[in-house]
Amino acid sequence: MQRIQQMLDARGLGHITAGPIDDVPTPDEPGHPEYHRRQRATIALTRWQTATPYRYQQAHATHPQVTAWADRAINDPRTAGILFLTGPFGTGKTHQAYGALRRIAEAGPDRFELIAVTAPDMYALIRPGGSERGPEYEVKRLMRVPLLLIDDLGTEKISEFTEEATYRILNERYNECRPLIITSNLPVSHPNGTDLHDQLGARITSRLAQTTTVVALSGNDRRLGAA
After folding, report:
1. Quick check: 63 and 164 in contact, CB under 8 A?
2. Residues with Cβ within 8 Å of residue 118, at least 6 apart in sequence
3. Are the C-beta atoms of residues 187 and 84 closer than 8 Å to each other?
4. Model confidence pLDDT, tens digit, residues 96-112
5. What CA–CA distance (Å, rounded) separates 183 from 132?
């Protein structure tokens, strides 16, 4: 070892001070926040795709109010409130709803769990005999899931069961400030026609009115190929 040191000294290499080591991870390496955000986004998008019907697999939110709501849900879910998309058939309500959920997934949140269901399927699920786990289990699952989409609310004929079940789900999510997306052909209120107040009752529309971003979509029915 002494001879080696003498040889290094003779060449001026005996006392080299090591420079700094660049061990800071890049965005493509574990340990960097962006790397882990991408990993979370990949998992979230897989869950989004599983919950999204094939027709809406390419959905992207484009309406400014919808993207703004989704961004609130990304930054602080408890401030997002309810997104209520209303308008005639075929104006893109469901497309925008799934697009909003996709936008949230792409952000790579720490937790991404959702249930997306049409209102008729939801009521069928929580009626006695509709689920092997029982209606109460399903109601609580809808209350507590971090993200919930109820599509076509108001299409069911009003009944005591419909009103009570809907109120329980919306009231729990309202109290716990959990994000909720609703689409409906009915407006929240209408001076001369049928609205959600008529269809679902005052208790529900009162909850909707307090923390809801209402987005009214208009235009021709896209399903008919109209411009």
Report:
1. no
2. 150, 151, 152
3. no
4. 999 999 999 999 999 99
5. 27
